[in-house]
Amino acid sequence: MTLVLSALILWAAAWWLNVRLANGPTAHTPATKLLVPVIFGLTLLIMWELIVRGLNVPLVILPAPSLIAARFAQSLPILWADFVQTFVKGALSGYAIGCAAAFVTAILIDRSDFLRRGLMPVGSFVAALPIVGTAPILVMWYGFDWQSKAAVVVVMVFFPMLVNITAGLQETTQMQRDQMQTWAATYWQGLWKLRLPAAMPFVFNGLKISSTLALIGAIVAEFFGSPIVGMGFRISTSVGQLALDMVWAEIVVAAIAGSVFYGVVALIERWVTFWHPSQRR
Amino acid sequence: HSDNSVKLQLQWVTQAQFAGYYVALEKGYYEEEGLDVTILPGGPDIAPPQVLAGGGADAMLNWMPSALAAREKGLPVVNIAQPFKSSGLMLTCWKDTGITGPQDFKGKTIGVWFFGNEYPFLSWMSQEGIPTDGGDDGVTVLKQGFNVDPLIQRQADCISTMTYNEYGQVLDAGVSPDELVTFKYEDMGVATLEDGIYVLEENLADPMFKEKMVKFVRASMKGWKYAESHPDEAAEIVLEYDETGAQSEAHQKRMMGEIAKLTAGSDGSLDEADYQRTVDTLLAGGSDPVISKAPEGAWTHEITDEALK
Amino acid sequence: MRSVVPVLAVVAVILAIWYLACLPMNIHTALTNAERAGVAVQPEGAAERRDRSGIGLALTNPGQWADTWAQDKPRLPAPHQVLAELWDTTAMKKVTSKRSLVFHGWITLSATLLGFAIGTGMGIVLAIGIVHSRAMDMSVMPWAIASQTIPILAIAPMIIVVLNSVGVQGLLPKAIISAYLSFFPVVVGMVKGLRSPDAMQFDLLRTYNASRGQTFAKLRLPASVPYLFASLKVGIAASLVGAIVGELPTGAVRGLGARLLTGSYYGQTIQIWSALFATAVLAAVLVALIAGAERMTLKRMGLGR
Amino acid sequence: MSQATVIEAKNLDLTFQTNDGAVQALSGVTLDIAAGDFVSFIGPSGCGKTTFLRCIAALEQPTGGTLTVNGMTPEEARKARAYGYVFQAAGLYPWRTIAGNIRLPLEIMGFSRAEQAERVKNVLELVDLAGFGGKFPWQLSGGMQQRASIARALSFDADILLMDEPFGALDEIVRDHLNEELLKLWARTGKTIGFVTHSIPEAVYLSTRIVVMSPRPGRITDVIESPLPKDRPLDIRDTPEFLEIAHRVREGLRAGHAYD
Amino acid sequence: MSQATVIEAKNLDLTFQTNDGAVQALSGVTLDIAAGDFVSFIGPSGCGKTTFLRCIAALEQPTGGTLTVNGMTPEEARKARAYGYVFQAAGLYPWRTIAGNIRLPLEIMGFSRAEQAERVKNVLELVDLAGFGGKFPWQLSGGMQQRASIARALSFDADILLMDEPFGALDEIVRDHLNEELLKLWARTGKTIGFVTHSIPEAVYLSTRIVVMSPRPGRITDVIESPLPKDRPLDIRDTPEFLEIAHRVREGLRAGHAYD
Ligand SMILES: Nc1ncnc2c1ncn2[C@@H]1O[C@H](COP(=O)(O)OP(=O)(O)OP(=O)(O)O)[C@@H](O)[C@H]1O
Ligand SMILES: Nc1ncnc2c1ncn2[C@@H]1O[C@H](COP(=O)(O)OP(=O)(O)OP(=O)(O)O)[C@@H](O)[C@H]1O
Ligand SMILES: [Mg+2]
Ligand SMILES: [Mg+2]
């Protein structure tokens, strides 16, 4: 009980500190912007540790963070192999293919209003097919290795990307398009010089959403059949073996990989859409 | 939540594999013992030991390798009854791949279930001296999904099947037995004990709980024996309890027929020789052992002795 | 309404492609079946055909085309097979029957709705906190993003077990998983919405000396309504996925998720596809309902032009 | 001009801290505004007109000097709801009707239901919008929206009316019309008005005093008292007196203007 | 006025089909514009000024009457790149530098690299923005942005310059300055200019002819020839001749104006 109580006290103290930091004079420095969420995350972790110990939660239900960290450190080669299989081979390739396909489709749709009005409703219907249903089908079609995982990722990211690119291409104002007209610009000139750059904030919005979807898709697809390597494989087998510390180590890898992926996309966004008001400061 | 309630966690979805319990429930055998039994179906993501540890169930069905592994992981589960005498696990291969015996597995692709069900296979392979990490000298292992597609689609040369379930599905897909080669673990001498009833060791210290389990095992075995002698009726009872509505009658009837063969030799009490063979097989498991030392106190005859008096 | 013709045209093209795709997808099985029945096919022997492309086989064996659209457990069921199964399991069965998709749909729907309500509520509360407290904004937002990179299917079973061990069972665990997926779009949308009024509008209220609560009620909240609805539409679809994911480890007993899974245990592809479509229809209906509520609300607020 | 001083600024400074250095928006601004004055602020973009108005309304905190409103600090005056503020854009809430928009400050200030209805009716008439109370903003033309926003600022009857380029977005004819109306209103109510504009004719036509400002740093370069009578028909703008003042304002402006 | 006719509109009609009925934006508009003319269009909001300009630039298709530009259809003239069009907002691309923005039409029209650089340099000087080529639009003030947008329209040296309220968003001083510059440019290049404005002084100051329009349906109510000399210092606006024309324009405007 004392451990649980100290967890609550810790929580209050950390929150007080964060409020001070966030409203203090240094609130806008990069260091504080990093520090505040880190303190928050650390607090959660320590509370988790204290509560798990305090309430004597069995290892096979929820391991303490310290155990997870130990397992993580011991299993680096396995985690790395799983990461390469799932993230690099499955998620990244699927992400690239899916985004590229969405791009080509968006341009096709853009050229034909008929296609746009026909495809978008059908597309949103198809996008509503849940991954737990499509994943087994795709595993059946594309085999057990990373190709089927990539296929699942393609299916998952395609539509969000398509919607965003299509919306982005509509983003120009009437005036900007008229301007192109007065210069007698061709369709491709207008696309290349005006509409694609203008669409970039939307495109990156789609890329960011898809970056989290991609990893989740690749992991979930491994639940439905895989070679004996991969994050999803490891998670599901480890649950069966009651190696919950390993499960959580993989989840940590997933969270880190996902966040870093998201962060990288956000960084590139900063760089490409430097001109957008949301990126200027 | 009355004191006479028992929650049983199954290993898999409702099917004839668990017919004995459903028959006991339907026929009122539990009721006769004064028990209020709830049967919780399992699924691909459910680890029965975890449910047991979390207090979600009083007893679970599990394969012995998985249960012993859990015991080593610090979850002291104890076998109190063993309704399944023999193993239904086998490897089913296409004959045209040229496989005639374990020595031919090298270089082939084999589908295996994981989630605790991979232990018998890994033990077997390490006894045969075949590495399981791919390459020309070893076998390439796939984590098999929930159906027999990998074999039918020829993504794997062999897959794991149960005599009572997947093997039937392969035949259902139109494959004739002549096209297949099968290796029963039982015949290979690497069989491990399957569906047994397990409870938490700490609970057994409680006489009330023990008494409840005695009644439970007694009624369950009565259910099993009834199911063995009335397979069609048992299958229909199972269908009644299947809430997904996905099972077919023909399939369940055939399954019940096969299950009856596995339970036939058991009165519910664990045969020590079978237990020893299971442990030996598991201990032989090479580089990645399922268990590292012979477990102690992993089973008890106290319940079955009392129940079968 | 102008979209009817294009949509029909696209659907027709998709159906045509679908039927064509059935040929290479199912031809292997069709040929094996034919061979067993004693019909001569090109080339002979299943092992022989194993590495041949489906398209090639389909071209050399036009006699077996019909069978690719009529198999029991095809790799790719033909559209009419899926439709027939859908019709069979919705219209032809009593809704209380365990074989009725309506029955399973209802089970899933109830978890979806409960989860959606929890997720939306949580999302709104979090968004209000984030907008009003810098500390919350700085500390919670990065973790909310990180939380969405965790594969839900991996932790769903653990959530179920943990909740189970504290005595929570039934609908609620599923709903919590579904809430986990739906709160995020709501947070993001609501934060955007609550911040959407420009500086001038806040200044205006300052000149009236309005309190924080008044600013919230009179300005932030109404301004966020369009954003809220946009995220509700995303959120309800996510809820549905969450409910289905949550059904897998609860014993896969009932619900569309259970249908998908059991269909997959037994290789019942037609059943999988029909459950898939039922899910998509359900999602479409839910989104349409919210869109309807959106139109009505915005109209009453004078925002629907 | 004989009345009491309402707004009193002494040596007001305001420096904004931005990412790339400090911007001195106001520097040594000293100005008294008497009750009933109509003071226009004119000057090139960035000279601090808006900033000065915002200081008066306590929307901005001066970094130096003193500023009192009715003898109080601007903050206290704001709490006492001494200001009606009209922004450049009408800024009506699209989800409220015109009447609802005008009712907004009244709700916030806790007027009774009956009082609210009464006041809304009165100000709607005042700005010639009787009958439009039930319409939504987007159903009205830009000029009507701007009138509604003035009505909103008038509804709670603050003594001081601060207007930041309220007619900037309107066309000349509508603007002329609203100028006339504003003058009438001012004559009738005797409010103290601070008015920012970019248009020389507008400033000259409306004001009793014209404050010419110049940027970098923002400061007052000239204060021109208008000898025009209180009663001003639109035609007054073609008279020599008018042109004379306009000329002075333009000269003052040009002197302080640096091309960028 | 002795030169060749460049733009010739005869009985132009344009009706928009909207959801709630047809809107007649132009009705029987007849006007000739000669080479080298500076024609201003003035009139209340919605009278069709923009629409008429857009018809000339082939951005809108008249529903009746005839319109020729340089003897061709507007469409052909557009393809021949006869127009420079300046919109009310600067409409620069935020992801291109000022020089990049000005280079844009040149890229599209396929000028060589060297030629592009040369022309960009020239027009930047012309609009007093030399040295700002490397800046991004959002780093410049509104007036500078508008100048850049004019530079962009000038860069490819079209004979006809169409400007739709180009200075609407600027303050009076900057506006005066740009007006002066525009006049100089016009004198130097002899381009034909069509110019939409809301400001009477601006129209009178700039134009050789002022076209007064009135709405519902949009039509020309008056065309006023300016007797002012081609050389116009800013002070000309205080002369009686100037005021006389301004008065005529105002009268013409008021006649056609109905309050809404
Ligand atoms: N919040 C702020 N932060 C930093 N600088 C500001 C801020 N507000 C105004 N400024 C700067 O202060 C100076 C004065 O701005 P202000 O808005 O008062 O000018 P103004 O006279 O109203 O101009 P305009 O005619 O364009 O409205 C400008 O240089 C402006 O860039
Ligand atoms: N694309 C369009 N569809 C329908 N109606 C239009 C369209 N464009 C303009 N109109 C209508 O045509 C009329 C003339 O519009 P136009 O934009 O030419 O006016 P304007 O004189 O430029 O007005 P302003 O001074 O406000 O710019 C208006 O009533 C307007 O509502
Ligand atoms: Mg200002
Ligand atoms: Mg216009």
TrEMBL record, chain A:
Positions of transmembrane segments:
32-52, 59-80, 92-110, 122-144, 150-169, 213-235, 247-272
Query: What subcellular compartments does it reside in?
Result: Cell membrane
Q: Which UniProt keywords apply?
A: Cell membrane, Membrane, Transmembrane, Transmembrane helix, Transport
Q: Which GO terms describe its biological process?
A: transmembrane transport
**Any single GO CC term annotated in Swiss-Prot or TrEMBL for this entry:** plasma membrane
The superkingdom of the source organism is Bacteria
Full protein name: ABC transporter permease subunit
* UniProt organism field: Pseudooceanicola pacificus
From TrEMBL, chain C:
Its record classes its membrane topology as: Multi-pass membrane protein
Q: Which UniProt keywords apply?
A: Cell membrane, Membrane, Transmembrane, Transmembrane helix, Transport
User: Where do transmembrane segments lie in this chain?
Assistant: 7-27, 106-131, 143-163, 175-194, 265-291
Name its GO BP terms in alphabetical order. transmembrane transport
- Which one Pfam family would you cite for this protein? BPD_transp_1
Name recorded for this polypeptide? ABC transporter permease subunit
Entry-linked InterPro entries: MetI-like, MetI-like_sf
Q: Which family does it belong to?
A: Belongs to the binding-protein-dependent transport system permease family.
User: Which residues are in the ABC transmembrane type-1 domain?
Assistant: 101-294
Where located?
Cell membrane
Q: What top-level branch of life does the organism fall under?
A: Bacteria
Could you name the Gene Ontology cellular component terms for this entry? Answer: plasma membrane
Chief subcellular site? membrane
Transmembrane among keywords: yes
Record's PANTHER family?
Answer: ABC TRANSPORTER PERMEASE PROTEIN HI_0355-RELATED (PTHR30151:SF20), ALKANE SULFONATE ABC TRANSPORTER-RELATED, MEMBRANE SUBUNIT (PTHR30151)
Family annotation (CDD domains): TM_PBP2 (cd06261)
